[in-house]
Amino acid sequence: MTGLHRIELTVNGNPQDCEIEARMTLADCLREKLNMTGTHLGCEHGVCGAGTVLVDGVAGRSCLMFAVQAVDAEITTIEGLARDGKLSALQQAFHDNFALQCGFCTPGFLTTAEAFLAENPVPTRAEVQRAISGNICRCTGYVSIVDAILDAAERLRAESTP
Amino acid sequence: MTGTAHKYIGKSVKRLEDERLLTGTGAYVDDLKLPGMAVMAILRSPHAHARIRGIDLSAARALPGVIDAFSAADIGPELPLIPIRLAPFEGFERFLQPPIAVGKVRYVGEPVAVVIASDRYVAEDALELIDIDLDPISAVTGIEQAVAGDVLIHEDAGENMGSRYTVGRGDAEAAFADAAYTRRERFVTNRHSAAPMETRGLIAEFDAGIPLLRLHGATKVTYFNRRHLAVAFDLPEAAVELIETDVGGGFGVRGELYPEDYLVPIASRRTGRPVKWIEDRRENLMATNHSRDIVCDLEIAATADGGILAMRATVQGDMGAYIRTNGGVVASRAAQFLPGPYRVPSFSCDVQFLITNKTPVGTLRGPGRFEANFCRERMLDLMADDLGIDPAELRLRNLLEPAELPYRIGELVPGDVNATFDPGDYPSALRRVLAEIGYDDWKDRQGDIIDGRAVGLGIACFIESSAAGPPETARITAAPDGGIEIRTGASSVGQGTETGLAQIGAEYLGIDIDRIGVLHGSSTLLASGGGTFHSRNTVMAGNAVRLAAEALRDRCVELASLRWNTEADELSYRDGAVHRPDEAAAEPLTLAELATFARSRGGKETLSADAAFENEGKLSYSYGAHAALVAVDVATGVVEVKRYVLAEEIGRALNPALVIGQAIGGMMQGLGGTLLDHMVYDEDGQLLTGSFADYLLPTSANLPDITAIALEEFPSEFNPMGFKGAGEGGIVAVAAAIGNAVALALKPHSIVINELPLTPDRLRALLRAVGA
């Protein structure tokens, strides 16, 4: 057993504090200490992407990061994507394009795509395919996910054009 | 209701499951936390084959935070054995698995000891403190070694042959003796697994006092599992509750009884606390069922113009160390589907199930079909080349014609005497795929170099059974608030079961789908249930819901006649209410009003109806064709699938968007199984692919341009909605089509593409051998 550390995190805009071992991953901290179980663990070694969260807006693997490394960072998880009870453009596009089946990988795809579209609001199909190539989905075969992200990009552009 | 206008059936209704899954508020088993819950971790065998000389748990037990630790010695002497659910061939009973190793370990990953602790970090620390003394024995890692039997894995059995039988039809020997053309090949399909994104997991609450065993995280066949767990723990069936949560993918492997389904309840019983176990990915790759691992020696006999006369085969399945719940499904179905949708008058197959020191096998989406199609379709392409016939033309000559259907295939699996292909048009499905991919434009360019890579267009045909097994059950209950609850004995493993069943309920009750909630899977919902496998849900559970809805309508009319004090046959049900012929005389009675009325009659009366749907042994066969256009880099051995077209006749699409999702998802899984997924063992039986860095799965980087076509030309005759299974047609012919495409692309090099997966290193080794 190692010693406990008291840390403060900002998750989805809310300050949180908890007492954890230094070895606890950010994913386990979110799930076990903060009861935010929307972030999923598919492999716990950074390959599958299910546990992707946004760290200061950048997509990162919560299973490869210690919670103590996230102090002072703004963490966004799937629970923080919808605003005022309304699905985000990406979430809505996933629904409308049948871009999920079992839904287990979905949190990682949404967070990955959120960061990607912030960086590249007018992506090509090939760019979307590349952007999500670090996330594994076993159900959909990816086609509907690519469709959904392109659809969301279009919706976001429409929203931002007065 | 076939032929009438529908509001929900046949429509791409948006999924009812999505909102919770899109907002992170779904509840998968690892998301549950129960008061006082402890966490369990399993020490698994690091050796493929060894005698257990001793297990010392004292240091692990002494670690602060550890609540309990046990091995077989602590819970024996009588341990339950995991039962066989399907294909229980003679001899298998000698190879059943206890939940924890007794005396010997027989595969890397077999449970040896269990630790229960306050959290998973501590539990895994404790695993490192367990001292196990193992005396390694040589491992049996291949089929030939298993047949030789120099090393016995289960000494009491006296052999490594789990079971063996011969099936067939016609007179294959005579056909081969007289045939103008014969060829023999050995095909090998690679061991791989489903690797659903959510690993397995369970939480057990065992209260010996009540008594109660509640197991969260169950799925697939909960009623079967309940029955066997009740026996294993000496409890009445009613005291065992299997609870289904959100499930992150099944594909055949999840929800079967595994060692952990016994170990987690034992841990809870010993500690008196709820105990959670979540499989990590390394465990998932070494402990969850593997599949596909067969060797097939196939011979074909034909006339000089390519008319198939006979097939003769030996199928050897590598079963791993124990026979688990799926018995001999994989190799037996591989044998049954070897002749495929073709006219093969004579067929004979020797089927063998070999025990080896590897992870036990079970079903994986399209079990046996994926394998059989690869072997047969590769053989057909080799024959087409030998005889100078175009591969598509060869297939069109041999596919069963519509006039030949229904076609009794014979007893190609022991006991399966009535298997009969139902009506369809196999040649037309192939023609559709050929047209869609532009076959005629490519057939003379096979092996051409385009942009530095060799291109090939491969095709394959398939047929695939669906919706076998026990009856499925449903109950529909109307509540006074207008809500409608559908309960099904079937499970949801992520494929949209809630949406599909709600569509059928809404259609047959004539109501808005938003009023419907669907409860599934848990064994507490209904008295009995069938479960979710073999592309069953839409056919079996869907028709059970239809029957329950029809019964509920009758019940509504009965209640309305009491309420109005009038003859029932004057009344009619439509659009969620019972109507009188003279509409002016009274407002219709709605489902909500009738539910209120039912309740007001006192007692326990509710507005509810139960139903069960049985297939009576009549199965519908989905069929179709696949085509793959590939580009192969001869210098690196890398295969890129550029374009993929598949068509499957499914009778009728309940929800076209979900059907296409199944087809494309299945296709990409199959692409992985053909080019990437591979469980690699060394000569000591050590699994070398224990992480996603070694065990490769397809990503969006591998995504071809895919067209999936759902054909609805031959509605099933066995259910009024016309459904056939649609969950597996996307995967079953992928290795066949891609295998043929790669072989055609590399044809100038004269290499043999008979073994999967088609990885760059395998292709380069083949090419290097011919100096390319």
Written account of the structure:
The complex is a heterodimer of chains A (162) and B (772). By secondary structure, chain A is α+β, with helices and mostly antiparallel strands. Chain A is built from five helices and five strands. Chain A has helices spanning 26-33, 89-96, 106-119, 125-131, 143-160, and strands spanning 4-11, 14-21, 52-55, 58-61, 74-76. The radius of gyration of chain A is 16 Å and the shape is globular. Chain B has 772 residues and is of the alpha+beta class. Chain B is built from 20 helices and 29 strands. In chain B, the strands form seven sheets. Chain B has a seven-stranded mixed beta sheet, with helices on both faces. A five-stranded mixed beta sheet of chain B has the order 7-15-14-13-8, sandwiched between helices. A five-stranded mixed beta sheet of chain B has the order 18-19-27-28-29, with helices on both faces. The mean pLDDT of chain B is 97. At the A-B interface, α1, α2, α3 and α5 of A face α1, α4 and α18 of B.
Give a quick rundown of the structure.
The complex is a heterodimer of chains A (162) and B (772). By secondary structure, chain A is an alpha+beta fold.
Show the helix and strand layout:
The complex is a heterodimer of chains A (162) and B (772).
Chain A lengths: L3 E8 L2 E8 L4 H8 L18 E4 L2 E4 L12 E3 L12 H8 L9 H14 L5 H7 L11 H18 L2
Parallel strand pairs in A: 1-5
Antiparallel strand pairs in A: 1-2, 3-4, 3-5
Helix pairs in contact in A: 2-5
Chain B lengths: L17 H5 L15 E7 L5 E7 L1 H5 L3 E6 H4 L28 E2 L5 E7 L2 H8 L3 E6 L6 H6 L12 E9 L2 H7 L2 E9 L11 E7 L4 E5 L5 H11 L7 E4 L15 H13 L3 E4 L2 H7 L6 E9 L5 E11 L10 H8 L9 E9 L14 H19 L3 H8 L8 E2 L11 E2 L4 H12 L1 H4 L6 E2 L2 E14 L5 E7 L5 E5 L8 H13 L6 E5 L16 H28 L7 E3 L2 E3 L9 E2 H10 L6 E7 L6 E13 L6 E11 L6 H20 L29 E7 L22 H12 L14 H10 L3
Parallel strand pairs in B: 1-12, 10-11, 14-15, 21-22, 28-29
Antiparallel strand pairs in B: 1-5, 2-4, 2-6, 3-5, 7-15, 8-13, 9-10, 9-12, 13-14, 16-17, 18-19, 19-27, 20-21, 20-26, 23-24, 24-25, 27-28
Helix pairs in contact in B: 10-11, 11-19, 15-16, 16-17, 18-19
